[in-house]
Amino acid sequence: MSEENNQKNKRHKRKKPKKKFKIVKSILLIILILILAGSAVAGGMVLSIINDAPEIDPTSINASLDQTSFILSPEGELIEKIQGPEFRTVVNLSDVPKHLQDAFISIEDERFESHMGIDPRGIISSATDNLKAGRIVRGASTITQQLVKNVYLTRERSWERKIKEAYLALKVERILSKDQILELYLNRIFLGQNAYGVQEAAQTYFSKDVGDLSIAESALIAGIAKSSARFAPYETIRPSNFNPETHDEIARIEMMGETFVAVYNLESIDRQELVLSQMLRLGKITDSQYTEALNEDIRANLKPAERKLEGISSYFSDYVKTQVVETLVKELDYTKEEATRELFAGGLKIYSTIDIELQKKLEDVYNNFTNVLSSGGERAPLLVDWKLSGSRDVLDNNGNILYYKKENLLNENSELKIGPSEFRVENDNLIINSNKLNPYKNHIDVADFYMIDDNKNLVTYPVGSIKLPVEQFEKNSAGELIIKAQFLKENEDFYRVDGNGALLISSKFFPIPNSGIVQPQSATVMLDYRKGQIKAIVGGRDVEGSRVLNRATASQRQPGSVMKPIASYLPALDNGFTAASAIDDIPFYSGGELWPRNWSRDYKGLTTLRKSVEQSSNVNSVKVVESIGVKTSMKYLERMGIIDNSDPFNDSFVTSAENPRSNDENLSALGLGGMTRGLTPLEVTAAFGTIANDGVYLQPMSFTKIEDKNGNILIDNAQIRTEVISPQKAYILKDILNTTVTNGIARRAQIPNMATAGKTGTTTNQADIWFVGFSPYYATGVWIGNDSPAITVSKGSGSAAQLWKHIMTKAHESLENKSTFDRPDGIVTASVCRDSGLLASPLCSRDPRGGRVYSEIFAKGTEPKKQCDVHVEVSIDSVTGKLASDNCPSGNIVSRVFIKRTPSYNPSKHNGITPNDYGYTVPSSICNHSNLPVENPDEDEGDEDIPDDFPLDGDNSDNSEKDKKPDKDKDKDKDNLQKEPEKKPDDEITEFPLDD
Fold first, then answer.
1. What pTM was computed for the model?
2. How far apart are the C-alpha atoms of 667 and 622, rounded to whole Å?
3. Strand, coil or helix: what is 457?
4. How many CA atoms lie within 13 A of 985 on its CB side?
5. Closest residue by Cα to residue 569 from 824, 757, 833, 851
6. For residue 239, cis peptide bond before it (omega within 30 degrees of 0)
7. Strand-pair partners of 874
């Protein structure tokens, strides 16, 4: 019984668990159903997210990379890495050392070679470590996922992004090989200091190519990938924040025109050691390699890259960038935006024309600017002339304030000071009537101030604008500035009123520059005129940081007398004039007014074209332009690139089509350089290069070719040549400009032991002084002036010639001496008369002044064929000095040689002005009173004026016609001539002598 009961009990006990199992089974089934249902829902969500993922083409990833463009010297030396959004140079994986590849794989994705784009083991390990730590201590993204995220996705942290990332990673792995993925990753990754990709990182931190990195250096770079902010080997700080006690300085580096201190980061070494230990654990390096890498002195290896060549400014490279954009627009039909994008992110290689040594020499001269212009070797005096108000503000010629003295504009807290009488408050609006604030459409301009530095230079400080919402200020009918109450309510710190009742505007609302601009400024361009290549540029002096204004290429200034050779005398030599052509330097009138005057304040009389250039005659230059015609002059300027209506980037010469009322189609602009806008030093120098280059103009270039990121030639910058004038006539003008230096007013420009040619230039009130010239090697233009033309230079054009000589002497130090310019075939010489420009007659040698006969050069075929008709021999009464008549005693009659003007000159019609040679002119009246001395023969009523048919010995009247071509444009230019009265004597273009 008990056995039976026992058996029942056993069966009973077996049945109990079965019931429980059914319950558990049911629960598990329910859970499974819920999981499946949840998975279905989740799966649907995942599919929805995947469907929203972007369409991708992994094969085009490399093409989408921004790449750094380079400006190189002709020899391929780096001048500048162009600062774009990213510094990047793409390299092939075969150029990346295996130990650098292994370093990234070891620390970022150790199963990279085996997974399919995502790493399940890595995900589990990451989740476990993160759960244990209670925070995210490691990620699970593979190299492929990181690449996908950087290329296609944002950096937001969300499940949606992670799902897309995993999906796209799987897709990339199906299309690209592991090597392709790794190459893209290593070229794409950000590694600090604006360096993208391993090649740029190698250059940034070690100044070497990626292929030259050691294991230790590779581990350091791989360690940056996790956090460039934490693990970059150095950080950059401003010098003002540098503390030598707490910071370990590696170097000083320049970025974006500003200097920073590179400070060593020890945390990068901790990360490097972790990378090395991972490489050792995974068998990527041996024990000995590990130990050697740990012992390598990384601190000593660090050498921050110079992204531009040391020792030269950015002026040249800045102009290269400008020309590259313009060329891409013109030649390849890019938009300006597309061209700019290509320049800054297209990976271009731009081969410039710069001569690095010449550029350094030029900059060295500018670094000693004041000493070069100082005559005694001591500190130079102030080089500006200015007008000061009673409160020491700088005034222009009309008495308007150009620059405030700093103390008159700003207080010690840099607040803008407005006088009590210059403002009021009405209805809570602030109303200001002060010259210190000028309202425009979208900003309020603040006046500028000046200071005097330790070298006695005037230094100007351009203050920034006050920028308010346009609806918060306006200008009323009285010209007053109204700042509205709403803005003032929202910005209570905008202004305050001090104890003296003055309005003080906080500097928080307008920028004040830390450094000013020294005055006067200067610019120089040097050209190899045989190739049309720019070799050196300086666009300003004593300018720190980024060169914003390149005065050599972008600053248009009136050229003054340097315009004469290119707009007056070069066209004249090609239109009937010769170097010997006589031009009568006598009073000239425009619209009934005496204009222009010569810098010497006298009139020379009959003067050869050569001497007119040598002495920079204003009158004769204007008369030559009038003779050949304004349109003819313009035609030659167009050939030399000064006028180019087809070029939207060239706006120097203002034509009548552009502005019918105020333009450069007149005698003032063409004969004297009094232009509406003016020319840049580059434009003038290139035009002078035409003379030096045997009459051929070469459009100046700053680069020879551009290669794209794949090494294909994008632009082959061929020379643009224009035949302007024959080599023979160019040589004539070249020789004239040579004697302008040896015999004329430009003696200070003579380069020792080197043929030198050139021309000085000075504009109204010496606002600009120039010297432009050339040697057998280079054409160079120098400009000196103040950024505001209303402030004049205290020294004349001789100072520009002096600076030019100093620059050119340095430039020619290692060059062969050439004392003459090469003379082309087709040049002949002839003995001519200075007063007629014709072949000398026996009478020319008997001129009482002497030296009237000289040897001149001519282009063959242009030499004179007729004898002088200006020198005549006449009989005069030795007592009266008048032409002898039958009434004169025979004992008084003598024979003398004079010059005969055609037409004759009468001082009484010119307010008594007499040219210097007037005393050697044939007397204008006949003696009627024998032995009667006459004090003023011109007004003696007892004398007769000389009749036209009065016999003059030696009068070669048949030869009186000059060897000139007909003046086709002269009648056309009468209207232009009548416009000249706008140029009053006060506005004349003057030039000062050598020893001004």
1. 0.78
2. 6
3. coil
4. 10
5. 757
6. no
7. 896
